[in-house]
Amino acid sequence: MILIDGKKTSAEVKADIKQEVEAFKAKGGKTPHLAAILVGNDGASETYVASKVRSCNEVGFDSTLERMGKETTEEELLAKIDEFNKNKDIDGFIVQLPLPSHINEQKVTTAILPEKDVDGFHPVNVGRMALGQPAYISATPYGIIQMLEKYDIDTTGKHCVVIGRSNIVGSPMSILMAKNSKYANCTVTLTHSRTKNLQEYTKSADIVIVALGKPGFLTGEMIKEGATVVDVGITRVPDESKKSGFRIQGDADFESCAEKASYITPVPGGVGLMTVASLMKNTLAAAKKEIYA
Ligand code: NAP
User: CATH number for the domain including 67?
Assistant: First the structure.
């Protein structure tokens, strides 16, 4: 079994970005600038945003963190988005999800200019990605594709089962894995909570991408010998032995899956780190105007 090391892979990606930033600036380019809007103070969101800001520092980007209280109205948030859309120094920005329930996420996602939507959630970017046109690809699926590429995992003609059909992970992942490209040329089955006999699909899968938010859901019994397991899940599970009072657990039962898998991503130290690295890649592309001129 080979561990797909997100720490090592994301460090390599970020080192490349750092070099590219230096080269871009040496030729008169600007310092890439990523901004993030955080509404409320959800613990997990705080952690994600902090890691994004840290990564900006590592690769030589400017970053702005805009904190807005949990009582922020939809109007106030849309006004802030409008301000960031117009700010010429900000190359790309994200609104950290989830948002408080009184704010319509779809409205917010659509309000960000596609050319600044480095999270790749805007319908224009999702549509362009689906059509194989230049687009910001949402960071988690993009990170997974890069991991498969870095580990040279054979995808051509393989059966990939994606568990979960969310707009930010499962659905775009299933589209990307079916693309006619070297690291995604699979036959794809997209499964969800209404899928009957899920095991029948997972047992025949060469690659299982599990993204449903249920810790330890995918067990070794559900996969075939030699499968590749990509674990997207991040759930905080209460753990009194930890100072924080919780530990992070993925959607795969690591022990039993690792016994049968040929490749597996750990949690933590897997997909999550590549998600942040991919956001940096999208931001660099925004600063260089590689996707939208
Ligand atoms: P989500 O929006 O809650 O969607 C969950 C999906 O799982 C839904 O499509 C749901 O089906 C499906 N599902 C639920 N129970 C199922 C079952 N028993 N069998 C098969 N499918 C089932 O989740 P998400 O936003 O995609 O996130 C999934 C996990 O990934 C979470 O743990 C999240 O924290 C993590 N995540 C990690 C990263 C990262 O960077 N590593 C990024 C994003 C998310 P229905 O559509 O039928 O309800």
Answer: 3.40.50.10860
Q: What is the pLDDT of residue 183?
A: 87
Do 80 and 153 sit in the same domain of this protein? Answer: no
For tokens 């067990």, the residue is: 219
Residue 68, strand partner residues: 39
Q: 230 C-alpha to center of ligand 1: Å?
A: 13
Domain match, 156 and 216 both: yes
- Confirm or reject: Cβ of 172 under 6 Å from ligand 1: no
Run means of pLDDT, 10 residues per run, the chain, 293 residues: 98 98 98 98 93 98 98 98 98 97 97 98 98 96 97 97 97 97 94 98 98 98 98 96 95 98 98 98 98 92
Instruction: Report helix, strand or coil for 279.
Output: helix
> Same domain for 152 and 256?
yes
Domain count, the chain: 2
Please tell me the pTM assigned to this model.
Answer: 0.97
Residue 52, ligand 1, Cβ within 6 A: no
Residue 275: φ, ψ to 5°: -60, -45
Q: Check pocket membership of 213 for ligand 1, CB cut-off 6 A.
A: yes
Token readout for 51 is 């890691």
Same domain, 262 and 146: yes
In ligand 1, which atom is closest to the CA atom of 212? Answer: 7
Q: Is 60 inside a domain boundary?
A: yes
Give the integer Cα–Cα distance in Å for 293 and 274: 26
Q: Which residues span the domain enclosing 69?
A: 27-113
* pLDDT (0 to 100) of residue 182: 85
Q: Which atom of ligand 1 is nearest to the CA of 276?
A: 40
Q: Is 146 in the pocket of ligand 1 (CB under 6 A)?
A: no
pLDDT at 101: 96
Same domain, 164 and 236: yes
Q: Tokens in use for 18? A: 């750092």
